[in-house]
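FORM 7B - TANDEM STRUCTURE REPORT

SECTION 1: FIRST PROTEIN
SEQUENCE AND TOKENS:
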Amino acid sequence: MALMTFKHELIFKLVISFAIFHMVIAGDPDILSYFIVPPNVTIVDSNFFTFTGMRILLGATPPTAFKVSKASIAEFPALNGQSVSYAILQYPAASVNPPHTHPRSAELLVLPDGSLQVGFVDTTNRLFTQTLQAGDLFVFPKGLVHYQYNSDAKNSAIAVSAFGSANAGTVSVPNTVFTTGIDDGILAKSFKTGIATIQKIKAGLAPKA
């Protein structure tokens, strides 16, 4: 029963997302043809315009940590030049999609199931927050730091995000700051803390063996 419910929710959110994707601000340049064929593609038929990568979500065991499944130009080359991409976001109970940005597109999120606490920060450091319920939509403006958090300790949530770019890009704030080799001393001064604290944060973000 749970698997059927998930399947129905997945279909619903995809239908909603396809209906609203044009509302997302496009970030890709216009092209001079209807579509772009990659150099390594020799046959262009209906299969080229079809992406089946989300099928694995149907009937799959729910993830134990936050998971994003993308349909961007990297996974679906037919999106090149089309100024659109999608992501299915799965939030187990009490999980978070950490602060991050999408440098090339706004993000329009629809929540078919569950509840989420969401927010973004503008360039004046003003925080905009909202608690979303099933059926709600929320837009994260292009390039601004934002997050989503499932505060429900028992129930999961599922969302679909539409982007106005085939390659919106994702810059994770924690990973960018603490896992890219920036000197501990610089980070300690920047965050007005000690080097030991910085090293502890870095250790917590290091890949688990």
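SECTION 2: SECOND PROTEIN
SEQUENCE AND TOKENS:
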Amino acid sequence: MNDWQMKSPLDWETYVNKRVKVVAAEKNEYEGWALTVDPVSANVVLANFLENGRVSIVVVLGHAVQEVAVLQEADDEMKARLSCIFAPEESKAYSPEELDKRKNDLKSWLEANHIPVTEQGEAGRTLCVAGVLTIDPPYGPEECSSSNEIILSRVQGLIQGYLEKRQ
């Protein structure tokens, strides 16, 4: 094990959200914003923002890391950009009014298609379909939950089709 692999996760955390230069085996050098360090393998995940708006991700394997130097601290804007890299595109925050509208629109659509649906949970935020499936905010197919895989699959398909028609 090299010195890098012997460090603790708390040591590695000091490199996260910083522009770093990683010297690896065979004199390879990598620069980028440190997104994370895997606590098991000590792999370093680096991100670079390209001119075309895309992001380049490089993973430097922990056993190859020889030295890591901090080049620059991230400002608040850069920290926000880094935190959104792996977030799904549709994971935008919805206002309470938007969530309420999404819930009511989906509930009305399900009822219009003769699917039994009720509201449950705190402040009626969760929709319950036929007593066996729940839909949590923001009311997409990914937020469906049921122990019955057949019903889960069919309702997710219906909601996906509903959302595609709305757009």
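SECTION 3: OBSERVATIONS ON SECOND PROTEIN
The chain has a mean pLDDT of 91.
The helical segments are 3-6, 9-13, 76-83, 96-112, 149-166.

SECTION 4: SIGNATURE
Preparer initials: ____
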